[in-house]
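Glycosyltransferase involved in cell wall biosynthesis
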Amino acid sequence: MPTPSETSGDVPVHVVPGPRGHGVDLCARQLADAVGATVVAEVPPGDARPLHLHVTDRVWGATPEAAATAVVAVCRSRPTTLTLHDVPQPHDGRALFPRRRAAYAAMARAAAGVVVSSRHERGLLARVLEDHPGPRTPVGVVPLPAVARPDRTGHPDHPGHPDGGSWHRPGRSTLGVAGWVYPGKGHLQALGAAAALARRGLVVDVLALGAVARGHDADAEELVRRGARIGVEVRISGWLADHELDAALAAVDVPYAGHRNVSASGSVNSWLSAGRRPLVRRGPYFEEMARLRPGTLHLVDVAGLPDAVAAALADPSSTRLRPGAGLAHDLADAARGYERFWQRVLLQGTGRVA
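Tokens:
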């Protein structure tokens, strides 16, 4: 892996404001380390070096408009490239969707170049920009990296915590959803699958491995109550330290990612990094990732989720990556992708005319 002294002169300074532990913050820091970039929490005053920002509106402002104002100001101060996360989609809601579209268009138009994390996401951004004309901005695609751990905790030869830690209870199986807890993440589908399996005599708890997203405490409480009403136990772990998350990802019987309209997913890569082969809700993004990393995902329609969970419980090896399964597009691949993008956009001076 490159060191800052080797490469920091050739890559932009990375502005990473936090919050620590947020998926975007983690991604930004991993990639900055991989390319040897200087990392700062705030835009350095009196410094003309190019910048790179990982942007989701929820991190850069209290509202989409505030985030756009902050990011556009940075872009106008010096050459700045962006990685845009959480590109707007209709499920944002009738009121929020147009506001987020306008904000993302303003940020993209102000940047020297934009990176997104999937071809699906590039298509979403293209539709945003079509509705908000302005200067042309080069857009590159660099998939989120899968960060393989050498121990591969979830490999059959390394099954993780020998007794399943606190995640297993006698006579009960577990269906896990990793990442922040908020509506649309797949917890309701997991709950429905567990209820269907209960009618077949299988007791399956739903584990939400992550903290409740800001503003969604009531949704999390309702999720637990809803489970109780239909006879399914829902457990929300809250924030987990890295070693705790590693143990949980390894111990869960069936890993699941059921994002309703996902355009890029760090939580799925967490399952892969733990050596797990998750069930994932079929859709354009996961189909793209299944092509990128053959044999690492099990695509499932919502209607088929109960049967898929039952099959996974009957064959636990199907939930773990096979020896030699490739996690294509790792941190080194991502670093090369970004370096090529910056070479084209910044060092060759193509900027907004590309």
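The domain at 4-145+330-353 is CATH 3.40.50.2000 (Rossmann fold).
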